[in-house]
Amino acid sequence: MLPVVVVHGGAGHIPKERSERSTSGVRSAAQSAYAVLKRGGSSMDAVVDAVMLLENNPSFNAGCGSVLNIKGEVEMDALVMDGKTLSSGAVSAVRNIANPIQLARLVMEKTSHACLTAEGASQFAHFMGIPEVPQESLITEYSRMRWKKNLEPDANPVECQMGKMGTVGAVAVDTDGNVACATSTGGLLNKMEGRVGDTPCIGSGGYADNMSGAVSTTGHGEAIMKVTLARHILFYMEQARSPLFSAQASHLKPPVIWAWPT
Questions:
Q1: What CA–CA distances, in Å, run from 100 to 125, 129, 183, 187?
Q2: Distance of CA 197 to the CA centre of its chain
């Protein structure tokens, strides 16, 4: 089977001065992930590779480019899912980890759980030998500037969300016909401490099933969770509906990406 990978850099308005870097980052991640597939790597290898590159790119709201919560701190969420086995792993509200998507994969492969959060996830990361990084290394000047701007008394919450790089994600089909998805995010700008959105929730932030396809979502997490958007899309695809129809039939229109075996 011809391998395929699709990568997204998130929803939201991207300022013109940042759009070129964003596009370049997505292109580089897709090229790297496709090279993984061409070498015979699995769809899981490919999507994790792509998302790790985006987490390492400060142009995106994931990893080192994450937006800040109300206290000016980084809290990140991530999810992976394997369409062959329906195995999944997720982490939420994690700090001091450069690549939450890597930790999410370890949750899937090395534990009997589906999701670890906050301090528990940090302890697991330490046990697995993943080094902690300084919180400051995950905070960009751009993120701090927007955090401060949103704290001003006359700040407009809607306007403040504009210019925010969105959740990142990838889906892939490998040469064996197996699909996988991966999604990672820093969440909402100036969110409450401990807020967790759709990203680490199976069926909302992503879903993968060889029988139907794979989806990675991006947009407003609270709205996505109301309809378990990723799984809802695949519900329609299982009825031989097109990906476009399936996405629109959810009555929500956040950008989504998908892949499916043929």
A1: 9, 14, 10, 13
A2: 11
Which 8-state DSSP code applies to residue 152? S
A 10 A CB-CB count for 140 gives: 17
Catalytic sites, residue numbers = 167
Nearest-5° angle of CA 77, CA 248, CA 252?
50
| pLDDT tens per residue across span 94-136 | 999 999 999 999 999 999 999 999 999 999 999 999 999 999 9
Residue type for 188, please?
L
Strand ranges (DSSP E) for 73-152? 76-82, 88-94, 115-117
- 198-228, pLDDT tens digit by residue? 999 999 999 999 999 999 999 889 999 999 9
DSSP 3-state assignment of 209? strand
261 Cβ neighbours under 8 A, 6+ residues apart: 1, 83, 173, 177, 178, 179, 210, 213
SS3 labels along 16-84: HHHHHHHHHHHHHHHHHHHHHHHCCCCHHHHHHHHHHHHHCCCCCCCHHHCCCCCCCCCCEEEEEEECC
Own/partner pairs, 106-115, CB within 8 angstroms, 24+ separation: 106/130, 108/80, 108/81, 108/82, 113/89, 114/88, 114/89, 114/90, 114/202, 115/89, 115/90, 115/91, 115/200
Inter-residue contact 219 to 254 (CB < 8 Å): yes
